[in-house]
Specification:
This protein is an alpha/beta fold and 969 residues long. It folds into 5 domains: 199 residues, no CATH class; 108 residues; 116 residues; 235 residues, 3-Layer(aba) Sandwich (Rossmann fold); 243 residues, P-loop containing nucleotide triphosphate hydrolases (Rossmann fold, 3-Layer(aba) Sandwich). It is built from 38 helices and 33 strands.
Length: 969
């Protein structure tokens, strides 16, 4: 494990790393180069050795909170600056720009705060360039652009960046943070500008003095002519109005009155100390003593001269002596409002303009009204979303609504600044024509069409609201307000009961089915997505067969929950020993209500699956199709079904490529093509933090995603304080082979020997439980877990869902060796630090780990592994609200005591307890004994594992024997 850091030294980005290896402090250059190749998909690096001054403790670098476990740095009170000689990689800054959206997870590495910091700098540079907040500059013979941070908001962001800059970005402690940040910002800014115009630059053929300066500004080495330097100085000076005065020049645009169409621009001086004090220039020309400004007339002319360079309208006013006002046309007024005013504000002038509703800031929004033509008699299961309706529409710009009739009339005037209902409105004729071309040529449209318009990326307008005929109104409103969805009666064949929020989820699925849409049920893990889906399948019983595709690690959970809640459903598990031969697939599926299979099996039998007409296909753990071009995703999308749903416990809205891929399965084409969606939404939101685009996207997807969190107040009230969940895992072939060999060998020894019988039984029990955990827990052959254990695979999936929700977990195991294996596996797999508490540690180390885990620091460890004996008592770990029993202790009281490390006074969240059980093994059989309270249950409850030593040989054989129908294949 290593901690990657990024610094900006002498106008170059360099990357270095602190190592967790005990025999080294910093990562050697060879390994660092390998990591950088993985991160940036390039090998074009320059190796360097630098001296860098950073905080240290006991002669070791002080690492970020996420790394402190590796160095036992639980406190930094005695830290001090120290210079280290460090191997580093100098990278081309364009690689950072190109990999801006790359994942923050790198195998075997933790990303330091400096990476995030430079990404924020880069995003700010993009923002400055997009708003043209930069100016040309030169120093000696070097020409370049610098950021213009005069605007108050930009200066505030810059100051905030300086305050939050990590120490590792600088070479020396004495270096000023402001200088480093500003240099980095200008560095990125220049690269972005150069990349944006390099194609146009190649067309510049002439070699005038200005051309040479332009080439210098855009990265080429060239000499700046003295005359250009002089002109640049004059231009920069010309932008500098006198900011030291107590008064600012104010430009005020007045609206036309009823008698004339002319607008009036007047000039004033406004007090900075008392903005209510304003005096017109017409008065000041007459009496300069009204303001205490030396050489007032000269100052006024200088300010007006600067303003005139950026506004033709102000320039025109200077044709008369002592200018104080000018009449302008509507077109000129629009130009002043939309262009000149921004330049003047940028220079430091005050501008007052009438409020206008601008199509440059506000998108045209269309309100669609579907009409009842009397042609349709839609039943409860028809696809309302795709039925065609007659329609009408109105248009809205900002808070102003324009009827279809008025909109058509306005479009004929060809004017861009018009007064509507007492408000000034700027209409972009191109956008007006887009609306007209789309709606005036259509005779009918569907509800589905309204969503497609919003995501096509081609239109300059969006659908703002949809009004449906009265008989369909509740369904359409239900799409945008889940509370309006009518409850569906839980089918009679459902054994058990649904919680209120689960009834809502089941009703939502039925509602979407009836309106012709698919959906993503993205409830937090543990809230019962499977049981809501089972209720849905019972509701659909009797139609074509339904299909569930899930990871093989959860096949057992589906099988058991179906048996528990809906035994009347005709179910076939198409996997492993129950997998049908290809010629039999279609014929044998026809009489089933539900087929369950794994993603891997679907790939193998793809040709057969895609030729079957399914009623509903549900993808469990749908994040497994997050890659839109992966073979697995492409195969899934070829399935033929009337209805589609996705189940996932992860917040899909956080990664837009994943959102598109999953939604494209649930509702094909709803979010347009990936390339169009990327251009219209992904890049503006993820790179530009475009809040308007985010809001539009939320409106589009919200009807089709239901996500309830365990922290929601309504959910908390409907949940017990502690929820126990059994997670069933299958053995791999390797585990099953070792397990059977232990059973055979142990039973032979137990039958042949009366002495030491208890010891032999206990030894067998330990071996079998270790094999259920992982072959390496028994064989001691390697510290790499890989995919050799079904339990480990399911464990990783549970941890991943928990971490996606930024929650903390406690993991209990009886075996110190297994704890060490899990710690290394989790750190390698998730690139996150893991605490591990066991009986061989000092009390000081234990206390430091507990304090670190209980910390509110965002980089504090999220996972705490504890050996059951060492961590089962006397510890308060209430920051965790998830408890995982990796292997079972057969005395429930002991397990409950361990669970109570999190479930105790001070816990502010509902606690979820996961018990991992390997099917077909002793783990499942003991669990059944405890659950069903059979004859042996009291014995087990009172004596735990010792009770097993009192069983006779036949009982032991039954308990130990392996049911081979639950293997992973």
């Amino acid at each position: 494990m290593l901690n990657l850091q990024m610094s900006f030294l002498r106008n170059n980005i360099v990357i270095w790393a602190i190592s967790s290896h005990t025999d080294e402090i910093f990562t050697p250059i060879e390994r660092l180069e390998k990591i950088c190749t993985e991160v940036f998909s390039s090998k074009k690096f320059i190796r360097k050795k630098i001296n860098i001054e950073i905080w240290a403790q006991n002669n070791f670098p002080l690492v970020s909170a996420s790394m402190r476990l590796f160095y036992n740095q639980f406190s930094c009170s005695d830290a001090h600056p120290r210079i280290f000689s460090v191997d580093c990689i100098e990278i081309d800054s364009r690689l950072l720009i190109d990999n801006f959206q790359s994942q923050a997870k790198i195998h075997g590495a933790l990303i330091g705060d400096s990476f995030d910091f430079f990404k924020i700098c880069l995003r700010f540079a993009y923002s400055l360039v997009s708003r043209q907040r930069f100016i040309p500059f030169y120093k000696e013979d070097n020409a370049y652009f610098i950021a213009n941070l005069e605007a108050f908001e930009d200066n505030l962001i810059f100051r905030d960046l300086c305050d939050k800059a990590p120490f590792s970005i600088k070479e020396k402690m004495s270096d000023k943070v402001e200088s480093t940040v500003k240099n980095a910002l200008n560095h990125f800014l220049n690269l972005i500008i150069i990349d944006s115009v390099k194609e146009e630059l190649s067309k510049v053929k002439s070699e005038t003095k200005c051309d040479l300066w332009l080439r210098g500004l855009l990265g080429e080495k060239t000499k700046v002519d003295e005359s250009i330097k002089k002109s640049a100085d004059e231009w920069l000076i010309s932008r500098n109005i006198n900011h030291e005065l107590d008064f600012s020049m104010l430009f005020k645009l007045g609206e036309p009155d009823e008698k004339t169409e002319d607008w009036k621009l007047t000039f004033h001086m406004q007090s900075k100390k008392d903005p209510s004090f304003i005096i017109g220039l017409d008065e000041l020309w007459k009496n300069t003593n009204k303001l205490p400004i030396k050489n007032l007339k000269l100052q006024l002319l200088m300010d007006l001269g600067i303003a005139a360079k950026y506004s033709k309208i102000v320039e025109k006013s200077l044709h008369k002596p002592q200018p104080s006002k000018i009449k302008i046309t509507g077109d000129e007024a629009l130009k002043f409002i939309t262009i000149d005013s921004f330049y003047l504000k940028d220079l430091g002038f005050v501008v007052q303009i009438p409020k206008i509703i601008s199509s440059r800031k506000e998108r045209l929004k269309v309100n669609v009204i579907f009409k009842d033509s009397g042609k349709f008699k839609i039943s409860g299961t028809s696809s309302l979303g795709k039925e065609l309706f007659d329609f009408d529409y109105s248009v809205a710009l900002g808070d102003l609504e324009i009827s279809r009739k008025d909109f058509l009339a306005l479009s004929k005037t060809k004017q861009e600044l018009v007064r509507i209902k007492g408000k000034w409105v700027e209409l972009n004729q191109n956008e007006v024509n887009k609306v007209l071309d789309y709606f005036e040529k259509k005779k009918q449209m569907s509800l589905y069409d309204t969503f497609l318009i919003n995501t096509s990326g081609q239109e300059k307008f969006q659908i703002d609201s949809v009004t449906a005929p009265k008989q369909f109104e509740s369904r359409v409103k239900g799409l945008f307000d889940f509370s309006r969805i009518e409850d569906t009666i839980v089918p009679k064949g459902f054994l058990g009961s649904l919680r209120e929020y689960q009834k809502k989820g089941f009703s939502w699925m039925v509602f979407l089915k009836n309106t012709g849409f698919g959906g993503i049920l993205a409830d937090d893990m543990g809230l019962g997505k499977t049981v809501q889906s089972i209720a849905y399948f019972l509701h659909c019983k009797g139609k074509e067969p339904n299909l569930v595709i899930c990871p093989k690690s959860v096949l057992g959970n589906w099988k058991r929950e179906l048996k528990q809640f809906s035994p009347s459903l005709r179910v076939h598990i198409h996997h492993g020993s129950e997998r049908l031969k290809k010629p039999e697939i279609g014929k044998n599926f026809a009489d089933k209500d539900l087929i369950i299979s794994s993603y891997a099996t679907l790939r193998i039998d793809q040709n057969f699956f895609e030729n079957i007409q399914w009623h509903t296909v549900i993808l469990d753990e749908a994040q497994l199709i997050k890659n839109p071009v992966a073979m697995q995703t492409l195969a899934i999308n070829k399935l033929k079904s009337k209805h589609r749903f996705c189940l996932t416990g992860t917040p899909v809205e956080n990664r837009l490529s994943e959102l598109w891929s999953i939604m494209n399965f649930a509702n094909p084409s709803l979010l347009s093509t990936w390339s169009s969606f990327k251009k219209s939404f992904a890049e503006p939101i993820e790179i530009g933090n475009d809040e308007e685009k985010s809001a539009v996207l939320r409106r589009i997807i919200s009807p089709f995603i239901m996500r309830r969190l365990k922290t929601d107040k309504k959910i908390i009230n409907d949940l017990p304080e502690k929820t126990e969940i059994k997670e069933y895992c299958n053995l791999t072939e390797e585990q099953a082979s070792i397990y059977q060999a232990i059973v055979d060998d142990s039973m032979e020894k137990i039958k042949s020997k009366d002495e030491n019988r208890r010891a032999l039984i206990m030894a067998a029990l330990i071996k079998l439980k270790q094999v259920c955990n992982h072959p390496s827990n028994y064989l001691k052959d390697t510290n790499r877990l890989d995919m050799r254990s079904g339990k480990v695979v399911r464990f990783r999936e549970i941890i991943e869902s928990i971490m996606e929700n930024n929650e903390k977990s406690l993991v209990f195991t009886q075996y110190k060796e297994m704890g060490e294996l899990l710690k290394k596996d989790l750190e390698d797999y998730f690139y996150t630090p893991v605490c591990f508490l066991h009986g061989e540690q000092s009390s000081k180390i234990r206390e430091q780990m507990i304090d670190l885990f209980q910390s509110d620091d965002r980089n504090s460890p999220k996972i705490f592994i504890l050996s059951l004996k060492a961590g089962g008592l006397g510890i308060n770990l209430t920051k965790a609200n998830n408890v995982i029993h990796f292997d079972r202790w057969w005395n429930p009281a002991v397990e409950n005591q361990a669970t109570d490390r999190a479930f105790r006074i001070g816990q502010k969240k509902n606690v979820f307890v996961y018990k991992l059980i390997t099917t077909g093994t002793i783990e499942e059989k003991i669990d059944e004994i405890i659950e069903k309270k059979l004859n042996l249950s009291n014995l087990v409850l009172s004596k735990g594992e010792l009770a097993i030593t009192e069983l006779n040989n036949e009982q032991l054989k039954e308990l130990f024997s392996l049911r081979r129908d639950n293997l992973e294949v």
